[in-house]
């Protein structure tokens, strides 16, 4: 019976990688006690995942389970995570996604609990690596209804979603990539909260935002703003079709400026950068950081 499954479900190296990501999640304080779950796709219909009721900081390769894309457990002595359907919904909708990390990073989860959307057009790395971070509506965790909440927000290269009243889910081409998004998001949310304590968050100008999106496209990263005709440049409306009860509104932060979309002509108020040297240095610094992170 087991011969029908891809041999990847027995790949010890991948199981060790799940355990390593689990240790990082736990040591960073992104998952307390038995919180969080991790998965990686190993075949057309096979996924390795963390088990339920285990601390992610102390998993061993023999603890790792395997499921098919319908959530049926096909290998492992421990029971698979109860939230695997969330991971599978993402993988089914996005064949490019190979790995998913769900956890409760405290600063990002604070936004989830406050139901406060993440401001955009603030930090270069966030614009390049993530873009708009949509907020999936609340649903009791564990079932198919919970998993389905993220589906409307999976278009256009999204890789990070806030789960309202719950936590975060990040995904990518590898476990390292998926985890990396979680770390970037929580660091960014921490910066936002600290900036708020200092008085305010300052948004990029229209030109600065366009330059960052040009860089993002040049580096080969996708973004909903590259596809939605009348999407606000700061991404405030990129996922409007996914919000059945209206786009979440910022209450704790000043709203981001409303700039014409990336596919639209720049506004008449937009002017060329006055210090091209500084702009070029910023773009070079971000490019170097991105390429270093990608190992290129």
* CATH 4th-level superfamily of the largest domain: Class II aldolase/adducin N-terminal domain
Total helices: the number is 8
User: Strands of the largest sheet, in order across it?
Assistant: 4-3-2-1-5-8-7-6
Q: The biggest beta sheet, please?
A: 8 strands, mixed
Which range does the strand content fall in? 5-15%
Q: Count of DSSP E strands?
A: 8
Q: Look at the helices and sheets and give the structural class.
A: alpha+beta
What overall geometry do the principal axes of the alpha carbons give?
Answer: globular
CATH class category name of the largest domain? Alpha Beta
Radius of gyration: 20 Å
* Known CATH architecture of the largest domain: 3-Layer(aba) Sandwich
Q: Which stretches are poorly predicted, pLDDT < 50 over at least 5 residues?
A: none
Give the helices and strands as they follow along the chain.
HEEEEHEHHEHEEHHH
Count of separate structural domains: 2
Average pLDDT, rounded to a whole number, is 89
How would you sum up this structure, described in words?
The protein is an alpha+beta fold. It has two domains: 6-198, 3-Layer(aba) Sandwich (L-fuculose-1-phosphate Aldolase); 206-293, no CATH class. Helix content is 34%, strand content 11%. It has helices at 12-27, 84-93, 106-114, 124-129, 144-148, 175-198, 206-218, 276-293; strands at 37-41, 46-49, 65-68, 73-75, 99-103, 135-136, 160-163, 167-172. The protein has an eight-stranded mixed beta sheet, with helices on both faces. Strand 6, helix 5 (144-148) and strand 7 (160-163) form a beta-alpha-beta unit.
Keywords:
about 300 residues; alpha+beta; L-fuculose-1-phosphate Aldolase; 8-stranded mixed beta sheet; 8 strands; globular
């Amino acid at each position: 019976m087991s011969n029908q499954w891809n041999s990847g479900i027995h790949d010890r190296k991948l199981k060790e990688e799940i355990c390593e990501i689990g240790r990082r999640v736990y040591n960073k304080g992104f998952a307390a006690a038995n919180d969080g779950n991790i998965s990686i796709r190993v075949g057309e219909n096979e996924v390795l995942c963390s088990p339920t009721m285990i601390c992610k900081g102390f998993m061993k390769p023999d603890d790792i389970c395997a499921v098919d894309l319908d959530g049926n457990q096909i290998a492992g002595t421990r029971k698979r995570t109860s939230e695997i359907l969330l991971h599978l919904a993402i993988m089914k909708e996005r064949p490019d996604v190979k790995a998913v990390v769900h956890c409760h990073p405290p600063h990002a989860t604070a936004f989830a609990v406050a139901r406060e959307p993440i401001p955009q057009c603030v930090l270069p790395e966030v614009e390049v690596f993530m873009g708009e971070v949509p907020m999936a509506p609340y649903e009791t965790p564990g079932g198919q209804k919970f998993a389905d909440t993220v589906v409307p927000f999976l278009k256009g290269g999204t890789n990070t979603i806030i789960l309202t009243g719950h936590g975060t889910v990040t995904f990518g081409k590898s476990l390292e990539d998926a985890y990396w998004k979680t770390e970037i998001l929580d660091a960014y949310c921490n910066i936002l909260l600290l900036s708020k304590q200092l008085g305010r968050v300052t948004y990029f100008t229209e030109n600065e935002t366009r330059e960052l999106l040009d860089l993002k496209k040049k580096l080969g990263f996708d973004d909903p703003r590259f596809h939605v005709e009348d999407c606000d440049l700061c991404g405030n409306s990129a996922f409007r079709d996914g919000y059945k009860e209206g786009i979440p509104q910022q209450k704790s932060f000043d709203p981001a400026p409303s700039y014409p979309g990336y596919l639209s002509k720049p506004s008449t108020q937009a002017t060329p950068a006055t210090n091209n040297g500084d702009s070029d240095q910023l773009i070079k610094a971000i490019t170097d950081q991105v390429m270093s992170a990608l190992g290129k």
